[in-house]
Model the fold of this input.
Amino acid sequence: MSTVVGLLLRRVGISVLTLLLVSAVVFLITSLLPGDPAQEMLGQAATPEVVEALREKLGLNQPAHLRYLNWLLSLLSGDPGVSLANNMPVAELVADRLPRSLMLAGITTVVAVPFALSVGITAAMYHGRRADSIISTAVMFVVAVPEFLVATVAVLVFAVELGWLSAVSYAPQNPTLPQFLATYALPVLTLSLVLVGQMARMTRAALIEQLLQPYIEMAVLKGASPARVILRHALPNAVGPIANAVALSLSYLMGGVVIIEVIFNYPGIASLMVDSVTNRDFPLLQACAMLFCTGYLILVLMADTAAILSNPKLRK
Amino acid sequence: MKKLYARLGIAGSAGLVLAVLWLLIGTLGPILTPYGPGEIVDYEVFLPMSAEHPLGTDYLGRSVLSRIMDGARFTVGIAFAAALLATLLGTGLGLFSAVSGKAMDESISRLMDALLSIPNKIFALVMIAAFGSSVPLLLLITGITYTPGVYRIARALAVNINQLDYIQVARARGEGRIYLALFEVLPNMIHPMLTDFGLRFVYVVLLLSSLSFLGLGVQPPNADLGSLVRENMSGLWEGAPAIMAPAAAIASLTIGVNLFIDSLRGRH
Done:
């Protein structure tokens, strides 16, 4: 067991170091700006004294590495500064939006994972036959087009043609069940579609890799039915790779949610980030970017953990 | 021709035709447009398809067909150049890493791993916020976004090839590192890197049109295919071809290239 713990600890350490490097990259890109942010905020009419005072206040007079350290420390202490666009604390803005995004991601996960697993396992069971090629082609079509296209088509079908759902997400404070469904149906549907595509593809690949192993040939030769070969023999051995695939595909949510929140006007962290890009609101942008990177790294870490835990060679 | 068809199969050939078609539209489109892309050709907005306006009119009464043919050059052009940039940078760095000493290899790999753990869209958004989104900048930003992905593949390939016998022989012959990298290792990497280039092209098309859809990509008066979907969103309620046509254009481009590459990979 100690090798596993050692490996996991090492893996966590690497993640923390990577996150540190990522924070340096994000800070470097956002502070390499041409021009003076203080001057830009105050406009041309500001006197040099006022600009200088603001530079002092924002800490722009310090050398870059000190500013990075200050920024990192304030980020870690949970106070990433004040938004330039509306003078509100970034922490407050984020705290308001983050639960909504997590909610969206959570519901999508609950909907998408079981569906993706059944699709992927079905495709693998009919590996190389017509059902598999139909599923694989459908999956390829969904994965190969941009999310906003899937969303547009979903709106066209479900909101315009069938008139079942509203195209704009608006969550009231205490939604009733129909309101809740109307808010989440379309964003969750489109996010799930793309996610199912990714996940089913990887699940299929993980399972098929098992199917090429000699012990499967043995099971087939002894006369086990195809369903039994897959469910009883291959699946238990593929649990690790599949868990790995699921976590990796979930990390895709970090990018997909950006498009979906904007299209459906969903008030989450991703639409906050897009606003911060439009307004060049850097404290907010940095905080959002770091949140997304942290979420992404956590999911990749979970994927690796699943791979390590499911490797029987490491269980000594 | 027949041989090519036999090699690619139906899906692969259809993909190749679509890819070539879009390359042609991307290069020749602006010359062949029936109307100017900014010209208002009808007072009626969101017209359906007709002989006069094959794909209808957009939200200002402009010809949708002309705007797609003009917009394709941004989508195809930027994506092609950015994928090329990513492939050249990534392959160059990967090769350099593979033939360099351990310290250099480690430090480049760690940095690239860190960049890889920033989701593509987030990375592109941060760079756009910092540097802006003119066409040359979009090219650079999307290119740099996909460089770490190329690097990872190129380095893995180069490291593997570098351990083969014929490289040992060349090394024993006294060849220098640069000669080994460029004339012994690189030629054997070209095939997989070309396939990878095709995939990167699709990724950049997806990223770029998503950015333009958010209003952060190609800026007016220019419009790529993603901007065309964005600016005609109000036509969604009428199911106007002004929004369906550019969407279908993006889909046929990305699916076409994907089908072609899949059929190539299936053979190897």
Q: What stands out?
A: The CA atoms of residues 9 and 225 of chain B lie 29 Å apart. Residues 64-99 of chain B form the longest helix (36 residues).
